Amino acid sequence: MSDVSNQAKPQIYLDHAATTPVDPIVLERMIPYFGSTFGNPSSWHGYGRAALHAVDAARDKIASLIGAKPAEIYFTSCGTESDNWALRGAVRQSNKPVKHIVTTAIEHPAILDTCSDLEKQGVEVTYVGVDNSGIVSVDAIKEAIKSNTAIVSVMTANNEIGSIQPIAEIGDYCRDEGIYFHTDAVQAAESENLNVNDLNVDMLSLSAHKFHGPKGIGILYIRSGVKLGRIITGGHQERGQRAGTTNTPLIVGMAEALAIAVEKREEYVMRISKLRDYFIDRALSEVPYSRLNGGRIKRLPNNANLSFEYIEGESLLMMLDNKGIAVSSGSACASGSLEPSHVILALKVPPEIAHGSVRFSLGRDTKKEEIDYVIDALKASVERLRVISPLFNVEKGTGHYV
Amino acid sequence: MYNKKVLDVFANPKNVGSMPDANGVGTAGNASCGDIMKVYLKIEDDVIKDASFETFGCAAAIASSSVATEMIKGLTTSQAEAIKNSEVVEVLEGLPPQKIHCSVLAEEAIHAALSDYKCKRKETE
User: Fold this and answer.
1) What is the pLDDT of residue A336?
2) pLDDT score for B92
3) Quick check: is B33 catalytic?
4) Which of A157, A158, A98, A106 minimizes the C-alpha distance to A125?
5) Above 80 in pLDDT, residue A334?
6) What is the mean pLDDT of the segment spanning A121-145?
7) Between the CA atoms of A56, A60, A66 and A72, what dihedral angle is there, to the nearest 10 degrees?
8) Over the stretch B30-42, which tens digit does the pLDDT of each residue have?
9) What CATH superfamily is the domain A12-19+265-399?
10) How far apart are CA A290 and CA A386, in angstroms?
């Protein structure tokens, strides 16, 4: 069958929470470090010094953008590695006979899977729940802390529903109690002001590809004085704390990307939150039996996570993909597990409705015309899938879960 | 990831919708697990004259429903009963490992519809 339309399928990318394209300026800045300035920053000769100079400048830049000292920035391969290091490093450093971690039920798998691995090694973990907006309560975190707590780890903003956590308040309490506090800020760097002093954090994870930087590079900020065990052993890179050849081009790219994100932040947040609200308002009013997962305030400005009742999220994802729209889904089918998203379930959304959840994450370049097209495509796709669904009666326009 | 065949079948599924004059209806799966398949059969002289489906589920579940209902049209009830999920997977030219259960669901829904037909026939005999 050939496509009768001569019009090219549009390409609308609404999955910026998964990853973002590299900013052309960032790419341009990186290129010399793959070629002419290819030296190993650990080498003593001129090639090495030239590369080291670029790494030092990038470290200084990142540090100043998050209110840290350059010596507190450690480059890693990604956000997942940074999260692993924070948790495993704190557990290894703790002198308690049984070590305890406090975290939340809605963390990224980089935290949750690491916690479950540590549990197998005898570490205790408390997973604190969230309210139906996806926000954890500071008091609940306080109550979960015990005398053997080695680290508290709470994400700055959730990757699925964009809920923003009370990091500064939790950090303030942890500091008084003398307990290490880590935040996975991977989703938050583009829109939130991440000053490590305002946030009262001891450790903070970032990943460059979430803010138009390259994949394969992240940082762990570690406040000076905080002692963490090493998890990547080998050479003496990163002041002996994280081995592995220093990745000059990606480090340069990460610093440039963060600088651009910070520079554009105010304008980005204003524009994208309006566009996102426009999308949510139209979707909720024009698609029957749709609901927003999570609250409307304390939410990343580019995130909209919606459930469409009586249909399943992955099939909606695939149908939108057919129309040139890229989104992601919290359905079991999209994740490869049998359970729907642990985040949507933590909001006390029933599993059958959690299966119908789809995340739309807007980006720097998302336009209103694109959102209008998405709304039309969404209405048509949901309607089509409800025709296919046994749970929805098209004639009556109502559905029920059997 | 889905192959092109699965994507094509999902984009243009056959036999979608309920069947008012069906004499065998069967359901498999449940909503909290994320997939329900309902198969409608019209059987005359032990031959499946028509088959249709309604499915709540992922693209693989919808594609499996389309292929399975297409496969059993024209078969005798005992031939249809012998249909295995692997044959559905074969027609789809493969499914990702975590999606094989969607083809199993199609097999189960067909079996449920066939036994519904047999039950009803016994009642009328």
Assistant:
1) 59
2) 97
3) yes
4) A98
5) no
6) 98
7) 60
8) 988 889 999 999 9
9) Aspartate Aminotransferase, domain 1 (3.90.1150.10)
10) 12
CATH architecture of A24-261: 3-Layer(aba) Sandwich (3.40)
Whether the CB-CB separation of A362 and A302 falls below 8 Å is answered with yes
Taking the CA of residue A329 and the nearest CA in chain B, the distance in Å comes to: 11
Q: Read off the tokens for A145.
A: 């802390």
Burial class (CB in 10 A: 0-12, 13-18, 19+), A252: buried
Structural domains of chain B, ranges and CATH numbers in brackets: 4-124 (3.90.1010.10)
d(CA A73, CA A76) in angstroms, rounded, equals: 10
For residue A224, CA distances in Å to A71, A105, A174, A233, B105 come to 8, 29, 16, 20, 56
At B88-106, the pLDDT tens digits run: 999 999 999 989 999 999 9
At residue A187's C-alpha, the angle toward residues A287 and A271, to 5°, is 60
- Segment A117-146 shows an average pLDDT of 98
pLDDT of residue A394: 87
Instruction: State how far the Cα of A172 lies from the Cα of A178, in Å rounded to an integer.
Output: 10
A315 closest CB neighbour out of B37, B38, B62: B62
The pLDDT, as a whole number, for residue B121 is: 87
Task: Tell me whether residue A11 is exposed, middle or buried, using C-beta atoms within 10 angstroms of its C-beta: 0 to 12, 13 to 18, 19 or more.
Answer: exposed
The question of whether B58 is a catalytic residue gets the answer: no
d(CA A152, CA A61): 28
CB neighbour burial string for B85-110, b if at least 16 within 10 angstroms, e if fewer: bebbbebbeebeeebbbbbbbbbbbb
Question: 39-98 in B: which are within 8 Å (CB) of A?
Answer: 54-62, 96, 98
The 10s digit of each residue's pLDDT in B10-29 is 999 999 999 999 999 999 99
